[in-house]
Write a structure and sequence with these properties.
By secondary structure, this protein is mainly β. Helices cover 11% and strands 28% of the residues. The chain has helices spanning 12-19, 129-132, 153-161, 219-225; strands at residues 30-31, 37-38, 45-48, 54-59, 64-68, 76-79, 86-95, 106-107, 114-122, 139-148, 171-173, 190-195, 206-211, 215-217, 257-258. The strands form 2 sheets. Strands 2, 3, 4, 5, 6, 7, 9, 10, 11, 12, 13, 14 and 15 form a 13-stranded mixed beta sheet that branches. Strands 1-8 form a two-stranded parallel sheet. Strand 6 and strand 7 (86-95) form a beta hairpin. The longest helix has 9 residues, at 153-161. It is globular, with a radius of gyration of 17 Å. Bound molecules: 4-[(4-nitrophenyl)methyl]benzenesulfonamide (9HK) and zinc ion. 4-[(4-nitrophenyl)methyl]benzenesulfonamide binds next to strand 9.
């Protein structure tokens, strides 16, 4: 997908408005469970992912992205609070240098060692990812917490490919990976709220859906995430890719909805 889209090439107007977003719907946030409001209108989420749309893994110097072909409606998210079908563009993770922290969102201030983001854009209303990025609710991101436990068999194929993208700007072909294997068994229970990208351009265009149930991965699998580097092969000083999460943002009057009571 076109998340390769680099900010420096955007239209000057867009750069201007994004430099300091309004700031009243920024992400990530803490999810205060007792303050979330059950919304009976929230539909079940429908994930229709085609593993054949999986293309490559790319170290963009901030995280590693598993990118999907989003030129057709093959890998789709719908339901929940969403009015339209959203196309899967990429997924990536955020993690810490230790298992004590690393997630971007928290639940009643509880931190997780890592968080998965499955990034989708509204292909019914817009024709390109970077167009949807600028529109209110043009994007839909599914957040899944990772906790340390048993080895995640589905994740291992991805973990085995990471050494090939150790440095910033490295890319490796990666095919036939079904992202549904990274979803928790219970996708019925989630929190939903209006927010933003958590990295530049911080666009306030994201419908967030955070799964209540974490997935389990092993300590060793997380350690491989930490073996990645922020820096490219040419740089003298190599920096471990860890703590690639944003600080939490004010709720600014937003309500977090829950799909469960
Ligand atoms: N962490 S997150 O909020 O799920 C997130 C999801 C996607 C992206 C990718 C990205 C989104 C937009 C742009 N841009 O418009 O220049 C560049 C990169 C950045 C961040
Ligand atoms: Zn993210």
């Amino acid at each position: 997908c076109s998340s390769k889209f680099v900010l420096s090439h955007v239209h000057p107007m867009w750069q201007g408005t994004l430099a300091v977003p309004g700031g009243d719907r920024q992400s990530p946030i803490d999810i205060a469970v007792r303050k979330s409001v059950f919304d009976p209108q929230l539909k079940p989420l429908t994930f229709q992912y085609d593993p054949r749309t999986c293309q490559q893994i790319w170290n963009n110097g901030y995280s590693f992205l598993v990118e999907y072909d989003d030129t057709t409606d093959k890998s789709i998210l719908s339901g929940g609070p969403l009015q339209d079908a959203y196309r899967l563009c990429q997924f990536h993770f955020h993690w810490g240098e230790s298992n004590a922290w690393g997630s971007e969102h928290t639940v009643d201030r509880r931190l997780f060692p890592a968080e998965l983001h499955l990034v989708h854009w509204n292909a019914e209303k817009y024709s390109l990812f970077e167009e949807a990025v600028m529109e209110e609710n043009g994007l839909a991101v599914i957040g899944v917490f990772l906790k340390v436990g048993k080895r995640h068999e589905g994740l291992q194929k991805l973990v085995d490919a990471l050494p090939a993208v150790r440095h910033k700007d490295s890319v490796v072909e990666f095919t036939r990976f079904d992202p549904a294997c990274l979803l928790p068994t219970n996708t019925h229970d989630y929190w939903a709220y209006p927010g933003s990208l958590t990295t530049p351009p911080l666009s306030e265009s994201v419908s967030w859906m955070i799964m209540k149930q974490p997935i389990e991965v092993s300590h060793d699998q997380l350690a491989v995430f930490r073996s990645l580097l922020f820096t490219s092969a040419e740089e003298e000083v190599q920096k471990s890719m860890v703590n690639n999460f944003r600080v939490q943002q004010a709720l600014r009057g937003r309500t977090v909805s829950s799909s469960f009571s």
